[in-house]
Design a protein that fits this description.
disordered N terminus, 189 residues, Arc Repressor Mutant, subunit A, mainly alpha, three-stranded antiparallel β-sheet
Length: 189
């Protein structure tokens, strides 16, 4: 079995091309070179695929009832989590082209799930907010996901939750995106 250090050394030159970000501590050899195997890394990747499939299955069924897809879900999620965000901020989070967002956002606005308002200081800005109808859809979509995550957290325990958080933050490529997730300490689920 290959050790992770070989995997990292072979792929270290690819990280900047893929992620646009490299923290040298991410590619330094582990303190215990035999502690993480290639198989464990590959299994972790596979677990992410299976978890994402199951995490999105119930919301996908709800979205289908409206003729919506995952792009609509992402927009509803982020606008719901960050009311009054600008279109530019949403584009930066989603890392998609304006044309792609325009189609999805236009549909959500026309169907009255989202409202756009001009900015108070800059009237050219478009501030996004969920309508009551949009908030209801967001709750429907997030309810099974919140239940799934809360249940997994409870079963795993607080130490595992902290480890999961560190892993997820380690996977996120951009420092700006990682800064969004300031640790507030253990809480009750």
């Amino acid at each position: 079995m290959l050790r992770l250090e070989l995997y990292i050394l072979n792929d270290a030159l690819q990280v900047p091309k893929v992620a646009g970000y490299v923290n040298m501590s991410d590619i330094n050899l582990p303190a215990h070179p035999h502690s993480i195997t290639e198989e464990e890394v590959r299994q972790g990747i596979e677990l992410l695929f299976f978890a994402y499939r199951d995490f999105t299955a119930e919301p996908d069924a709800i979205l289908a009832q409206y003729g919506f897809g995952r792009a609509h879900h992402r927009v509803i999620h982020f606008v719901g989590r960050h009311p009054h965000m600008t279109v530019s901020e949403l584009l930066a989070i989603l890392r998609i082209r304006k044309q792609s967002l325009s189609r999805v956002l236009g549909q959500l606005v026309r169907q009255k799930f989202i409202v756009q308002q001009p900015g108070a200081h800059d009237r050219r800005q478009r501030l996004l907010e969920l309508t009551p109808k949009g908030r209801d859809l967001e709750r429907q979509l997030s309810k099974p996901q919140r239940a799934r995550v809360a249940n997994a957290y409870r079963q795993a325990g607080s130490q595992a939750v902290d480890g999961f958080r560190k892993i997820m933050l380690g996977i996120i490529a951009g420092e700006e995106d990682r800064r969004r997730f300031r640790y507030s300490g253990p809480g009750k689920l």
